[in-house]
Design goal:
mainly alpha; 2 domains; 6 helices; elongated
């Protein structure tokens, strides 16, 4: 059991590390460049998306799945999770701003209740 917990903790740490790298455009670009240099460019990444049925997911989710077997979230699922967090943490004007950005991404406007 201790070995399983240790391995789970290591995987979680690596997943957090990927998230930290992905969060900043400069480090994200460096990661993508390093992957491309190793033969994993845009075409290979697109193929991975198709193979794991994650064409509606961001590349971050594809990498997290491949590296750590974390289930990929679709862009819509990720936006819904963010919306829940935003509704709990931000003011109404901030929520309206988020909804406008979200609507432009998904093509539908939502009203705050």
């Amino acid at each position: 059991m201790a070995l399983i917990c240790t391995e789970a903790a290591k995987a979680l740490f690596r997943a957090f590390r990927l998230r930290a790298i992905w969060r900043l455009p400069k480090t994200r670009a460096g990661l993508l460049e390093a992957l491309a240099n190793e033969g994993f460019g845009k075409e290979q990444m697109a193929e991975m998306q198709r193979i794991i049925d994650a064409e509606n997911s961001d590349l971050f989710d594809v990498l997290a799945y491949v590296a750590y077997t974390l289930p990929p979230l679709t862009r819509e699922e990720r936006a819904t999770k963010a919306k829940t967090a935003i509704s709990n943490q931000f003011t109404t004007p901030q929520q309206v701003y988020y909804n406008n950005i979200s609507a432009s991404f998904f093509g539908a406007k939502e009203k705050i209740s």
